[in-house]
Amino acid sequence: MKKNFISQYFSLIIILAALIGIFFPSMFRSFGGVIPYLLALIMFSVGLHINISDFKYVVNLRYKIFIILFLKISCTAYLAYLIGKFLGLNLLELVGLVIVGTCPGGTAASVMALLSRANVTLAVCLTMITTILTPITMPLIIYSLFHESVELDWLGMAQTTFTIVIIPIALGLLVKKKNIFGPNALDIFTNIAIIAITLIVMIIVALNYNIILALPVKLILSVIILSILASFIGYIVGVMFNLDTASRKALLFEFSILDVGLGIVIATIFFGKEAAIAGVFYAVWQNIVGPIIANLLINKKGDKRK
């Protein structure tokens, strides 16, 4: 993966996007309706990055991959619920934090895996599989935790997730197979995806800037604790299965670097903008901490599998 200016300074760009959204909210408030389309564009980019041959590595893990997938899908979500309950978040804050926990691994997880010399193939495969399963797993987990306290449109949530995740990914796969955009498509659409994520952050921050300026300490702590514990759990899962150091590092990022853009969209559409605040702060947090962790891990011995 070639690093250019946009990908190299991704973390700084996200922070600047959040600041722009806070200081110039009127510029972006009217663009709330474009968020699902921006996310679909990101998912299209994910589709362009998928190589079916990568799944061969996952097959070689046999039964281990099913347990890893189960833990990846369930641990962060239910951990988010426990953290939020313990710290006394209100209902919408708690729902938002759980939605963050249900998000699949983000493409940034693969970038961090690459930067830290982790097992990129494992990171990419887990991101692909968990993303494809999201239209089922996200509504199911949210329903299991909140069906008695909030009104949930389970079918609508599944359909929306399917529309903005699976269809764009399938189109990305088709475009890649037909080589419609030529050899530079990956680099171009990677940059477009980063720009789309940046715009999502700016719009969500602009829509919620009053709340963000008075961001509850409990919610800040919840996001930070979730990120730290998810990283720890991911690494420990690798230790449990006696995976090599490179694979352990990949799991660390896969459990903690999430596709919160998807979570922000789902939270906004089905629960309102207050529920999206956890996702916005998590997006900023993970893009600050991720490169720092990658830099710390780069000197740890691991294999060179890409």
Automatic annotation (TrEMBL):
Classification via Pfam families: SBF
Keywords: Membrane, Transmembrane, Transmembrane helix
Keyword DNA-binding applies: no
A GO CC term assigned to this protein in UniProt: membrane
PANTHER family documented for this protein: P3 PROTEIN-RELATED, SODIUM-BILE ACID COTRANSPORTER
Keyword presence, Membrane: yes
Residues spanning the membrane: 9-28, 34-53, 65-83, 95-115, 122-142, 154-174, 186-207, 219-243, 250-271, 277-298
Compartments where located: Membrane
Highest taxon of the lineage: Bacteria
Predominant place of localization: membrane
Species: Francisella frigiditurris
Protein's recorded name: Sodium Bile acid symporter family protein
Membrane topology note: Multi-pass membrane protein
